[in-house]
Specification:
The chain has 143 residues and is of the alpha/beta class. It has one domain: CBS-domain (Roll), CATH 3.10.580.10. The strands form two sheets. The protein has a three-stranded mixed beta sheet. The chain has a three-stranded mixed beta sheet with strand order 4-5-6. Helix 2 links the parallel strand 1 and strand 2. Helix 4 packs across helix 5. The radius of gyration is 18 Å and the shape is elongated. The model has no long low-confidence stretch (mean pLDDT 93).
Length: 143
């Protein structure tokens, strides 16, 4: 399955935050939106980072509660790994496993068009396996 098909099924909504937003505000948004990461964009919409629950935990572990009042730009992941809308789920699973990341912004050229998580990809692979098993069972029983 292509990432574009996955986004068509799950939706293309992407929550973004600004580099100057505090970590405390980001933590509250992560909780209220029930997501694990946000894409950080600049004023003209360019992706400049990703901030995840892991980044916030790391910040608090290193700098204590003071980290929560500091800007996201101090702690976000700047070396963003991207996905393209034409890539396969298998390729992204491999990339995420190799890089030990859980979220990938999806780009169409320079335009941000979605985000996929490791959970989205695993769910897709399970659905594909179940569909294949069902198809094979139907073929076998049909004789």
């Amino acid at each position: 399955m292509l990432v574009n098909q996955l986004l068509n099924a799950k939706g293309r909504q992407v929550f973004t935050v600004a580099p100057e937003d505090s970590l405390a505000s980001i933590a509250a948004l992560l909780h209220s939106r029930k997501v694990g990461a946000f894409i950080v964009t600049d004023r003209i919409g360019r992706v400049v980072g990703v901030v995840s629950e892991r980044d916030i935990i790391r910040a608090v572990a290193v700098d204590g509660a003071e980290a929560l009042v500091r800007p996201t730009s101090d702690y976000m992941t700047r070396d963003v790994i991207f996905a393209s809308h034409g890539e396969t789920v298998e390729i992204l699973l491999e990339r995420m496993t190799d890089r030990r990341i859980r979220h990938l912004p999806v780009m169409d050229g320079a335009r941000l068009i979605g985000i996929v998580s490791i959970g989205d990809l695993v769910k897709t692979k399970i659905a594909e396996a179940e569909h294949e098993a069902h198809t094979l069972k139907a073929y076998i029983t049909a004789g």
